[in-house]
Write a structure and sequence with these properties.
The chain is an alpha/beta fold. Helices cover 42% and strands 12% of the residues. It has two domains: 7-48 and 286-358 and 402-439, Aspartate Aminotransferase, domain 1 (Alpha-Beta Complex), CATH 3.90.1150.10; 53-281, Type I PLP-dependent aspartate aminotransferase-like (Major domain) (Aspartate Aminotransferase, domain 2), CATH 3.40.640.
């Protein structure tokens, strides 16, 4: 079920107009910090991760047990059971990181040389690297610029007889269009592997992201909401896919582990007991922190709706919960007197508001051509096949997005309600002096 608008969100949204009116009377008078004025804020946003006494206690418990290895300890298994229960999945397998979760899942799905996997061009590079590690081809489907997610309407047109899987990314914690994706996958008989590495507790029509396709993957890296420094997890309702994943992540050893017997190839991608204990303790704060991000994001959206030229990413109607790992926006320089995006971001940072330009187009990054020109790929794919592949991977909407995107990170949304007012005030101040900033 959709998460209801709380009284706190309602009152914050209602007060947005008042805040805008007050800001409109002052932002034009105050010079931006980049032009020598006083910054909107001088206190930094909170650091990450947040640590409590429970984290230290659990860490020391693991230390004293001397069972730091997941096959002799209990903490990783406890976390797997807990995370599967939270998400409503039958099986969870913890891995060394989000990248290894995706790699393990692709191996469980038996993706290999000559195969194609549908991917978005706007994502962290790991989504693409794991496909290339299987010596398969990542086929890029253009971005829906309004949501900054894969344009699911274009997936079917990218499918060929070599397509073996669809790998959507719930970027920033916002759900990809899973209705369309699942319908295409069912029609074409393809498995869906959800990259939910930025989408802890995110939902599509009330169901947790990572549980709608055949498999789903998470990251628990240092910047993530659920954090163990490094770490990842695979969720699935398929016993067969779970067992294949377990075997692959454990050097090819199937359960039980009583003997050095190997049923398949694999790697050591296991999580440690220290990380399992940290995840269990970090999980105790995840829901409260997630609600705070959602509330602040809703309020900030209401403030920015009145600021022409800075548009928050649209969510699909089916997205009933956004994890808000990233508050994603698009910047229209024409509404800021031609002020380049880089100068806008510089001005925002000078006001004490951290933001970034987001990802670059992965389909144009040099690593891809280098990989395709490698000896291994040339042995698998004919030169004409590679030329045809490169011609297919044009993503004009994504190219535009990569020139317009502006992001703010999740720690910004953990701040107080008043801090959201300061973010909006910084935007208004910069817009009021945009022409002067453009000349400076």
């Amino acid at each position: 079920m959709p998460h209801p608008v709380t009284r706190r969100i309602f009152l914050g949204t209602a007060s947005a107009a008042t805040a805008l009116a007050v800001g409109a009377n002052t932002s034009g008078k105050e010079k931006p910090a980049l032009l020598g004025g006083k910054p909107v804020r001088t206190e930094p946003f909170g650091s990450w991760p947040q640590i409590g006494p429970n984290d230290e206690k659990a860490w020391m418990e693991v230390l004293r047990t001397k069972r730091w290895y997941r096959l002799t300890g209990t903490y990783v298994k406890k976390f797997e059971d807990k995370w599967a229960g939270v998400l409503g999945a039958k099986y969870c397998l913890a891995t060394a990181n989000g990248t290894s979760a995706l790699l393990t899942a692709l191996n469980a799905l038996q993706i290999g040389p000559g195969d194609e996997v549908i991917v978005p061009p706007y994502t962290f590079i790991a989504t693409i690297n794991v496909v290339l590690m299987q010596h398969a081809l990542p086929v890029f489907v253009d971005t829906d610029i309004e949501t900054q997610l894969i344009d699911a309407r274009k997936i079917e047109g990218a499918i060929t007889p070599r397509t073996r899987a669809i790998l959507p990314v719930h970027l920033g914690g916002s759900a990809a269009d899973m209705d369309t994706i699942l319908a295409v996958a069912k029609k074409r008989g393809l498995p869906v592997l959800e990259d939910a590495c930025q989408a802890w507790l995110g939902e599509w029509r009330g169901r947790k992201l990572s549980t709608l396709g055949e498999m789903g993957c998470f990251s628990f890296q240092a910047s993530k909401h659920l954090n163990s420094g490094e770490g990842g997890a695979i969720l699935t309702n398929s016993q067969e896919l779970f067992e294949r994943s377990w075997t692959f992540h454990n050097n090819g050893r199937a359960k039980p582990n009583s003997a050095f017997e190997y049923s398949h190839n694999g790697l050591n991608l296991r999580l440690t007991e220290f990380q399992g204990a940290l995840l269990l303790e970090q999980l105790t704060r995840l829901e409260e922190q997630s609600q705070r991000r959602e509330q602040n994001a809703a309020y900030l959206r209401s403030l920015l709706q009145e600021t022409p030229g800075l548009r928050p990413a649209r969510m699909y109607d089916g997205c009933t919960r956004n994890a808000y790992h990233i508050f994603m926006m698009r910047y229209d320089k024409d509404r800021f007197a031609g002020l380049p995006r880089a100068k806008f971001i510089q001005a925002m940072r000078a006001e004490g508001v951290p933001c970034s330009p987001g990802y670059k187009p992965l389909n144009k990054e040099p690593f891809l051509k280098t990989t395709l020109d490698s000896r291994a790929f040339r042995a698998i794919y004919a030169a004409q096949q590679i030329r045809d592949y490169e011609e297919r991977n044009r993503c004009p909407a994504n190219d535009r997005l990569c020139e317009e995107a502006v992001w703010m990170g999740q720690t910004t949304l953990l701040a107080a309600r008043a801090d959201m007012d300061q973010i909006a005030e910084a935007v208004r101040k910069i817009q009021a002096h945009a022409a002067e900033l453009a000349r400076s």
